[in-house]
Specification:
82 residues, mainly alpha, 434 Repressor (Amino-terminal Domain), 4 helices, globular
Length: 82
Amino acid sequence: MSDIVRTPPHIGAVIRRRRKLKGLTQAQLGEKTKLRQATISQLEGGEGGVQLKTLTDVLAVLNLELVVQDRSTSSPDIGDLF
């Protein structure tokens, strides 16, 4: 499954959805990544200030990867996906 994300809130929504699919709480994900639950909450909330290392650590635990590509112009409005 792939998701199109273009903003921090979209990234946060994908992470939240995948975390829940894996049956993890924010605290459990925090333990696995050695991050505080509050940091996981900030990331899922799309709040700024989260470091790239934090993002990549969370993606790794959730078995996700970040792919950068040219924006599609034929995609549905990204806001409709969330």
